Amino acid sequence: MGGIHKGSPTKMKKLKIPKAKLKAYWLAVECVEDVYWKQIQLIEKYISKDTGVKDIELFHGDDGSICGIGNTSRTIKLIHR
């Protein structure tokens, strides 16, 4: 495993970042997430309208990527990517 660090990670010096310095970045992340989820909901609405299937939902996998389409009332089988 020849890593560049000598010793265990628990003995390494850890940097401390004041929460105040990160506040603006967290707000930026929240804004991006909000836009993302609104766009996903819009796409789901378009899919529902186009297919005639109510409650279409895009499903996310463990890694966060969209991996399938289904609907909340479970009237269709899951469609995997």
Topology, element by element:
Elements: H1 19-51, E1 56-60, E2 66-71, E3 79-80
Antiparallel strand pairs: 1-2, 2-3
Tell me briefly what this model is.
The protein is α+β, with helices and mostly antiparallel strands. The protein has one helix at 19-51, and strands at 56-60, 66-71, 79-80.
**Could you state the order of secondary-structure elements as H and E?**
HEEE
The major sheet is characterized as:
3 strands, antiparallel
Spatial strand arrangement across the major sheet: 1-2-3
Low-confidence stretches: none
Secondary structure: helix percent? 40-55%
Measured distance between first and last alpha carbons: 35 Å
Q: Can you walk through the features of this model?
A:
It is a single chain. The chain is an alpha+beta fold. The protein has one helix at residues 19-51; strands at 56-60, 66-71, 79-80. The chain has a 3-stranded antiparallel β-sheet, with helices on one face. The longest helix is centred in the middle third of the chain and has 33 residues, at 19-51. It starts with 18 loop residues before the first helix and ends with a strand.
Q: Which descriptors would you attach to this protein?
A:
single chain, 81 residues, alpha+beta, three-stranded antiparallel sheet
